[in-house]
Amino acid sequence: MKNRAALIFGYNDYALEIAKNIRDEYENIYLYSLNSEQDILKNKSGFEVKSFDLSDKWDELNENIDIEKSIAFCVLEDSAENIFLTISLRSSFDALNIIALSNNKQTASKLQMAGANKVIPLVQTTAEMISEMLQKPIVKEVFHNILFESGALKIAQVKIDENNKYIGEAISEIDWSSRYGVMILAIVYEDMSSEFIYSSKIKHHIVNKDNLFIVVGYESDIKEFEKITGSRCD
Amino acid sequence: MNFLSRLVVNGAYFLNTSESYQRKKRFFYDILENDRFQYKKYFDIFMIILIFSSVAILIIEVKSEMNIYLKFFNVYVISFIFFIEYILRFWISSSVSEIIIYRSDHAIALGRKFYLYKAIISVIKAKLSFVFSIKAVIDLLAILPFFHELRLLRLFVLFRIFKLFRYTKSFQTFTSVLATKKFEFFILLMFSSVVIFVSSVLIYVMEAHNPASPVNTFFDAVYWSIVTISTVGYGDIVPVTTEGRVVAAFVIIAGISVLAFTTSIIVSAFTEKIDEIIEIKTIDNIRKLKHFYLICGYEGVAQEVAKKLKSSKITIIVLDEDIDRIKSAKKDGLIAVNYDPGNIESYKKIGIDLNTQVESILCLRESDVENVYTTLTVRSISKDVNIISLLMDDANRNKLKFAGANEIFYPKGLVGMISKELIGRPVAFEVIHALRNDYYGVEVEEILVDDRISQNLVHVRELNNVKFRVVLLGIYKKETKRFFFNPIEGTLLESGDYLLVIGNSAFIREFEKHLHKKIKT
Question: ipTM above 0.90?
Fold first, then answer.
């Protein structure tokens, strides 16, 4: 039987940090190393380390992994190797969700061209956090807590069910925050395009089945909101 | 210690500990010598105006009858002001009380007898070193036109021009650059002197006996040599004999070499010093800044941070020991200085006040060793300045904390957290990311509730944010340091609180204006 797994390519600090953070989401986490013999010997991370090389045809993955439900992280430190790896995975697996790490803007666009679903621009993201810390320290703290910390305030993706009582009503006419204690930040449409609730376009938007609401609120309020509107899809 | 010595030492201690005396002395030091003192420039401008007025009056006086008031102004008022300035400079040049206290303490520490005359000699030596300094001599000579009855002394008004050196930095820079080529100028002077002397003797010997020649005295010969070697050649004295003309040919060739040599010395002095001059100017500008971010190390993350902070009103200064990185920072339009951020001397040389001028110090080298070292250096100078540092290896987190970093950014950890969000709530993550980075014109902003807002608006319900299509995400209370999401309408607005609002950038600006305009009725 094929497994749902997180495949992390590269045995380095990035890989170990990713593995630590996603261990609750994925039962099977495999770290792939280009230098497997040494890495297997010194591995004390608790995750399974496997070997691969860039000319791999990925037969083992094909046999054992449920590609559609799995995710791959390309975090090799050498940018050229990382791009090559991404192309190699994409050419073999159309349905694989690939997240790649880039160290600069140029590499980021190449990784996207190579087929990565999402690129984490490391330098830019760090710089954004630092500049936000300096210019908007409270915004940084609040959003950091919402996203990364286990505080009371949460962000959630809530899908509108077909039986929802608000279907057909204009979104701006409902006072969600005083009714449910949650704030809707954005709506994601069926075609996965999203719109901020504060944009002028959305003012007359009518709530539809399968709309995805991005909401912020306390855990208990979000649960209440889910009961009425639909299902959480985190 | 006899009575007189004791009296003098006690007097010295009194002056040294007298706050009002020290404050006055400090004030005069600042206005005369401290370039960072905000009022010094006005004093300098005032003195420059006096100098030019004085010289203008001298020029007018040559052929016209001078107005009696102008004469009085020139002879008495300007000279008196210069005299007062001289006395003040004499006063602040060294501290008499400190010299006496030092001598007294020294004698006590070594168990020796305190001799008042030795202390007085030290004081005289210190004061004489001021009196005989070039600048002080010029100052003194500039006062001399005060004795206007002696006509020759009136020419000393020209020394007032030299006083300009005191008040204009560019003059000081010019002389300091030329001073670096002292040896070359000395060689040039020797060469010119030898050529002038030899040619003067030769032309005198060749021409003086000839009645048709204008060279009659040795002074004529020297004058001709100087005019010729300098390539000026007035033509009032010309050699008439063949021998004299041969000498003239040699002097002309020597003159061209002297001119070329002089030009090349000046040009090379400025070429060699141009970077230094620019750096001095940069440092001078940094010292004048009231607030800035100091980025230590200009590598990948630092470059991106600088780009993002450029839009803020606060200036960014880059400090790096690597000249290539400094060049890159300058190319990016930043003020950058080539100093080692890990060295205490760097901060002393730049002369910045870490407590008052620097908003935050960003240690952004991609090396924990460098960042820990810089953090420790900065912390040893200032206990309060906010230090933000990059961390490359989590094993070094405690070292950075111990060194005194206030905030630590660990990019690898960030990748882990982002990955978790990307697999859990990818759309929500994207939305927050877009919001934080002001994509699509929608942004999240924090608005400080200042005294004016808190006096005019008491409760959240009075904010009227809905009218401006701005959503109040929450309120950060200064008192409790807690964030209250979706606050109820009765929440009190207090000075120092922050409102976190989301909306279109233009609407937020309008809302801010409304908050500051609103007057309670």
Answer: no
